[in-house]
């Protein structure tokens, strides 16, 4: 998927930077190691406040700073996490594939070609809608009552995730 994305985006003339956090041995767990300077209150360290202060003072770990700079310089980030909406990102429909190791080669090729085609027009996609304040009012509940699938994985209302295709739900 990564190679297909790089190929498709470069073909459209985009500059592509890939961060393979796994290959970089990037530790995703927040800890004292993320802060290179002194803690404001070492006896009662509160990571959110300490990390904000470390950011302002330029005392975050070099790996964290490097990834933040990459994010600040980008127009498009490909993640698979709808929770980013709540951090201010516009989130597009996920690109889903299942059991890729057990998928026949012709189907894998089709999946990759579909992914490349999607990336060619990614700027034209509409962001997902997320119900405000994690609540669905009576009107939204009534609108969704007879639908086969929920609004999103996070707002599924007990309904199943689309199974008609490995890539994404068909409209």
TrEMBL record:
Residues 160-171 have a biased composition (Polar residues). It is found in: Cytoplasm, Cytosol. Its EC number is 1.6.5.2. The keyword Flavoprotein applies. Residues 148-171 are annotated as: Disordered. InterPro entries: Flavodoxin_fold, Flavoprotein-like_sf, NAD(P)H_dehydrogenase_qn. Residues 3-80 form the Flavodoxin-like fold domain. Homodimer. Interacts with PDLIM4 isoform 2; this interaction stabilizes PDLIM4 isoform 2 in response to oxidative stress and protects it from ubiquitin-independent degradation by the core 20S proteasome. Interacts with TP73 (via SAM domain); this interaction is NADH-dependent, stabilizes TP73 in response to oxidative stress and protects it from ubiquitin-independent degradation by the 20S proteasome. Interacts with TP53; this interaction is NADH-dependent, stabilizes TP53 in response to oxidative stress and protects it from ubiquitin-independent degradation by the 20S proteasome. This is NAD(P)H dehydrogenase [quinone] 1. It comes from Monodon monoceros.
């Amino acid at each position: 998927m990564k190679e297909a994305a790089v190929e498709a985006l470069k073909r459209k003339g985009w500059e592509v930077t890939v961060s393979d956090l796994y290959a970089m041995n990037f530790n995703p767990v927040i800890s004292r190691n993320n802060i290179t300077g002194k803690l404001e209150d070492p006896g009662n360290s509160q990571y959110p406040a300490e990390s904000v202060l470390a950011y302002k003072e330029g005392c975050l770990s070099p790996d964290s700073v490097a990834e933040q700079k990459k994010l600040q310089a980008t127009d498009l980030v490909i993640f698979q996490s709808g929770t980013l909406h709540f951090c201010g990102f516009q989130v597009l429909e996920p690109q889903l594939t299942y059991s890729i190791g057990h998928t026949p080669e012709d189907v894998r090729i089709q999946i990759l070609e579909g992914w490349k085609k999607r990336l060619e027009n990614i700027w034209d996609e509409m962001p997902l809608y997320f119900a405000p304040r994690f609540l669905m009012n009576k009107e939204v509940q009534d609108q969704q009552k007879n639908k086969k699938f929920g609004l999103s994985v996070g707002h599924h209302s007990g309904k199943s995730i689309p199974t008609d295709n490995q890539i994404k739900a068909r409209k």
